[in-house]
Amino acid sequence: RPLLGEEERAAVLDVLSSPQLVHGPRTRMFENSFAASLGPSAHATSVSSCTAGLHLAYMHLNLGPGDEVIVPAQTHVATAHAVEITGAKPVFVDCELGTGNIDVSAIDAAISERTRAISVVHFLGLPADMDGINALARKKNLFVVEDCALAVGSSLGGTACGLLGDVGSFSFYPVKHMTTGEGGMVVSQHRNVVESIANMKAFGYDRGPAERTVPGVYDIARLGINYRMNEISAAIGLEQLKKVPEFSRRRAANASSLRSAFANIAEIDVLADGDATRIHSNYCVVGILKGRMAPLRNQVVAALSDAGIGTSVYYPVPLPLSAYYSAKYSYDWRGFPNSVAISNNSIAFPVGPHLNEDDMHVIGEALKSAVLKVGS
User: Fold this and answer.
1) DSSP letter (8 states) at residue 70
2) Residues 195, 111, 99, 143: what is their CA dihedral angle, to the nearest 10 degrees?
3) pLDDT score at 1
């Protein structure tokens, strides 16, 4: 659940008392503050959603029919839709069973002469193998797009996710690590990439409202779209950003407690944790049922629900096997065994900052009881 306090409410009321709801100072302040939170090399531009940011990244590349992008099979549909909407083809690659991240060893075989980019998802906040991905991208001259929807606070080797590839896009949807109500942020170490995307998110105007010598007079320099963030969302984001360190600390503590609670449940494996160099943002903790319990995931979820434990599934179907993509591209499930296993057998458990370590104990005991009940 989103954690919104009096600070966010006051910030919104302050915006509503002003005459400017878009193109205002809070949006610029939020962009600068978010960039600073990632590191001194970061540049950022706010957008209306993470999906919008991903779409703009591919617009920046001028993707179109005949082009291809490598996309993880195990991810939210927005990762692939952002490619598909340009007319390019998403070429799906299976994930690692232990992490949920794209299997780097399988990427090379999926690359063709039409491939333009590699899309990387840091699965549920665990950084992917960016060293391997970037080495392959440099060898093949490919652009790397990071889907950082669940990676606020994630980093690899001291570098924040979003700055590990060529461009990254974050999500501020209500249940993410921080929220703006709805919104996102595009980031990069390359100023020219961010400036290009900032222009395209506002119709491709040759100059913004503050730069117009004659009010209302401008030209259209390029193809663009309205993917801007408004001042209300930015005001919320500024206050939420201040709370991210504490939110992250509580998530990490909850995740550690829940992993300990699951350690002695033989019927479940837990997706990999981070370490000192691979900082996990701990969006949730995902367990994968195994053995005779594997096909009974939905019954276990029902038993947990009866006990008052809310859960989810990330993600319910590998994208190449979803109705839309399987009908269009005729992918075979046998090409994505790890993604199938995670989609069919996994349960995602909450570790958000609205919970505490006692709640994690309750969840652990509930899972033990559910497994015993369903498996008996």
Assistant:
1) E
2) -10
3) 84
